[in-house]
Structures are given as structure tokens and as C-alpha cells.
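Need residues for this backbone.
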């Protein structure tokens, strides 16, 4: 049995990219492994330090996680800040993380470009906190989307460095995981880039059918292929990428063929895409509504999840302290 961990920042509602890139994969593997799923609320403070929004955001993401199929009876689902041991492991790992390598991280560079007025140390050490999340339970498989690949690479580097410095084989190799297939990047509907919480280009798991249809019908396309087998422009390729993730192979083949023979009607493609997205999203959305208001259930889930996560975390932190030479008198 392997240890699996994955997480999401609590900076807004879950979108289709989060679900198809990561969440759907955890749900598929949760019964065969030792699984941890958590909500990264400490991470959200690097960009969204708003005390009035923090709790409502965590509440929303928690309900969405459960609605998407995570089973708290088998998986341990918890909130990052309910497990303070992560802060200690983060501090200890920071002692072996170099400022130069952190400054070179793609996500850090992107954040300083977007928010030059708030380049805080938490942002710089974001990958160290993420490594602490993963190594806290010594996870070997980490279901994530393509955008997290570099963070996973850094986690493995920090783990190897720790093992080398202290001459131990303590931390495992934590691998990004998608059932042997490539990690996915679900694009937005605006013609470029990935679907993201702050990009305003997403379809959310809580979206109503009408909103989904409207967003998909407005997706950016081009003026259509003019020669057989011509390459797709990025915006059309993006629509096909989402189609591949939500539709049947027959449907995808049909529209590929229509494209290759210049007979495609983007209106038909979008209508089909919208219906296939709705098939995925609608049942989750209906469950979100029930779960969101069930405070007794939600507080039981996080109380029990927090306890189980703290148990696993304290074991690791005690062993790391011992390895690093922090010992009681
Ligand atoms: P976050 O909150 O941005 O996203 C959560 C998960 O969704 C995936 N994802 C996507 N996958 C495919 N296409 C997309 N457009 C897309 N957008 C998001 C992400 O890859 C991720 O798997 N740093 C993490 C949160 C985190 C974490 C961790 C994850 C903190 N500690 C430890 C795993 C393990 C983040 O910001 O993800």
C-alpha cells in the first residue's frame, strides 16, 4: 500500500481544471491506498491574507471536495492549519533550501510578475511548505496537474538533500501521479493558458447548467480550417483538450474527423462539449448544495481528519527532530 497525498489552495471555488487534473484521480485511488487530502489554507495566505474570506473559502472547498467523491471513511481529509506539525517541518526544511533555487521557481517568477507589490517570504518559500505537506506523511504518490510538476521535483530534491546531509534513507521519492499517463493541463476557454482560479476563464463545479452552456458557447475559436488536415490553432486545440477529458472517444473522433475534412461547425462542437461538461459537473453541483449546509457533518469530518493527520504528522516530526539532533535532556 502506498501513501498518497494531494491538496488544493483555499483561494476560491474548485474548477473543472482542479477536478480533471487532480481530484478525479485521488477519488479513483482512495480505496486502495493510505490517502490524505488536505486544504492548503496556510498557502492561501501568500496571496490572499483576508481574515473575512479565509474561513468561507475553506468551507466552500471542503464541501466541494466531499461532493466530488472523497470518502472521509477511508481517506483522511483535513485542513492544513489544523496540523501545526507542518509548520515545524517547514521551518526545519527551510534550513536546507537555498534562496537561489527558490528564486528560480517558475511559480515564484510568475507571482512576482503579477503581484510586484507583495513579494513576501512566504511566496518565496511556497515550495518548501508544499514539500513539508508531502513529506509530513512521507507520501510516495501525489496526484496533481501539470502545473505542479516543478514543485514535486523540488520536493524530491529537498528530500534527497535531507537524506544525504544526515546520512539516512528517511524521506521517500514523492512522484506526481496520473495512473501512468502524462499529467494534464486543462486549458481555459479564453484561447490561451490554463484554467485557473484567478484567470476568470473557468467552469466551476458549482456552476449551473445554463452558466456552463453560456461560458462554453462564448469560448474563443478561429474562423475554421480551410485546408484538409491543417494544424489547429491554440484556441481550437484547447477545446479539443477539454473534449478529450469529458467526452467519449467516439465523440472526440467524430469531431476530429469533421475538423480534418473542413466540415466542422464550431457551434455543434461547443454544444456537445457543454453537454458533456454538464454530465460531469451537474451531479457534483447537486451534492455540493446538500453538503455545504450540513455543518454537523463537515465539522465531524475535519475533526476526525485532523486527528488522524496529526497522528501521522507527529510521528514524522519526532523522527526528523531525532535525525537532526534535537533531543530532550
Ligand atoms: P491549486 O490549488 O492551484 O490546484 C489544485 C490541484 O488542481 C490542479 N490544477 C489543474 N490541473 C490541470 N489543469 C488545470 N488547469 C489545473 N489547475 C489546477 C493542480 O495541479 C493541483 O493538483 N500548490 C498547490 C496546492 C498544494 C499541494 C500541496 C498540492 C499545496 N501543498 C501538496 C499537492 C501536494 C496548488 O496551488 O494547487
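Answer:
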Amino acid at each position: 500500500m502506498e501513501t498518497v497525498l494531494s491538496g488544493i489552495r483555499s483561494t476560491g471555488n474548485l474548477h473543472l481544471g482542479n477536478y480533471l487534473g487532480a481530484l478525479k484521480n485521488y477519488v479513483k485511488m482512495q480505496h486502495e491506498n493510505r490517502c490524505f487530502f488536505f486544504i492548503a489554507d496556510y498557502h492561501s495566505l501568500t496571496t490572499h491574507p483576508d481574515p473575512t474570506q479565509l474561513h468561507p473559502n475553506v468551507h466552500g472547498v471542503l464541501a466541494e471536495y466531499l461532493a466530488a467523491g472523497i470518502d472521509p471513511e477511508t481517506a483522511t481529509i483535513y485542513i492544513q492549519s489544523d496540523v501545526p506539525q507542518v509548520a515545524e517541518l517547514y521551518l526545519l526544511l527551510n534550513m536546507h533550501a537555498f534562496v537561489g533555487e527558490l528564486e528560480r521557481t517558475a511559480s515564484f517568477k510568475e507571482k512576482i510578475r503579477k503581484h510586484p507589490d507583495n513579494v513576501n517570504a512566504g511566496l518565496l518559500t511556497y515550495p518548501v511548505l508544499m514539500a513539508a505537506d508531502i513529506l509530513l506523511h512521507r507520501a510516495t504518490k501525489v496526484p496533481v496537474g501539470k502545473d505542479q510538476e516543478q514543485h514535486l521535483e523540488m520536493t524530491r530534491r529537498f528530500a534527497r538533500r535531507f537524506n544525504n546531509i544526515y546520512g539516512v534513507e528517511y524521506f521517500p521519492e514523492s512522484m506526481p501521479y496520473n495512473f501512468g499517463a502524462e499529467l494534464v493541463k486543462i486549458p481555459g476557454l479564453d484561447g490561451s493558458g490554463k484554467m485557473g482560479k484567478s484567470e476568470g476563464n473557468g467552469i466551476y463545479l458549482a456552476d449551473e447548467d445554463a452558466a456552463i452552456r453560456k461560458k462554453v458557447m462564448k469560448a474563443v475559436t478561429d474562423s475554421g480550417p480551410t485546408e484538409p488536415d491543417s494544424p489547429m490553432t491554440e484556441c481550437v486545440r484547447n477545446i479539443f483538450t477539454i473534449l478529450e477529458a469529458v467526452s467519449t472517444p467516439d465523440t472526440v473522433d467524430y469531431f476530429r474527423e469533421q475538423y480534418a475534412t473542413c466540415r466542422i461547425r464550431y457551434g455543434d462542437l461547443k454544444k456537445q462539449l457543454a453537454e458533456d461538461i454538464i454530465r460531469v459537473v451537474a451531479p457534483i453541483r447537486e451534492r455540493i448544495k446538500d453538503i455545504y449546509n450540513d455543518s454537523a457533518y463537515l465539522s465531524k469530518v475535519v475533526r476526525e481528519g485532523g486527528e488522524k493527520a496529526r497522528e501521522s504528522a507527529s510521528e514524522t516530526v519526532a523522527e526528523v527532530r531525532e535525525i537532526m539532533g534535537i533531543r530532550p535532556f
